[in-house]
């Protein structure tokens, strides 16, 4: 089984229609997040697909997208009632 890595996906999109499309695209992969920053667990193939699809969606002159891989050795800190992320055996995307 391919190991997933934890990323933060963040975007700044100027057009409301592209913003809605970017939100829908990232939420298809997201396990959590707020507004325009989301936690995503990705395999290398999913990472490639997300970057490819986002590049087709965004206007490179006006919009920005950041996909930041988080160090798996780092300690997770949560506030409130959050739970530490884990890499489950099964991951449903649908």
Describe the protein's architecture and organization.
The chain has helices at 16-27, 44-57, and strands at 5-12, 30-34, 37-42, 64-69. 28% of the residues lie in helices and 27% in strands. It has a four-stranded antiparallel beta sheet with strand order 2-3-1-4, with helices on one face. Strand 2 (30-34) and strand 3 (37-42) form a beta hairpin. The mean pLDDT is 84.
Task: Please outline the helices and strands.
Blueprint: E1 5-12, H1 16-27, E2 30-34, E3 37-42, H2 44-57, E4 64-69
Antiparallel strand pairs: 1-3, 1-4, 2-3
Helix pairs in contact: 1-2
For the structure shown, list the relevant keywords:
94 residues; alpha+beta; Alpha-Beta Plaits; 4-stranded antiparallel beta sheet; 2 helices; 4 strands; globular; Virulence_VapD/CRISPR_Cas2; EC 3.1.-.-; metal-binding; RNA endonuclease activity
User: What is the C-level CATH assignment of the domain at 5-67?
Assistant: Alpha Beta
Helical/strand content category = alpha+beta
How far apart the termini lie comes to 19 Å
What is the overall shape?
globular
Helix count, per DSSP? 2
The helix content, as a percent range, equals 25-40%
Going across the biggest sheet, name each strand in turn: 2-3-1-4
Mean pLDDT: 84
Order of helices and strands: EHEEHE
**What share of the residues does DSSP label as strand, in percent?**
25-35%
GO molecular function: hydrolase activity; metal ion binding; RNA endonuclease activity
Cofactor: Mg(2+)
InterPro entries: CRISPR_associated_Cas2, Virulence_VapD/CRISPR_Cas2
Protein name: CRISPR-associated endoribonuclease Cas2
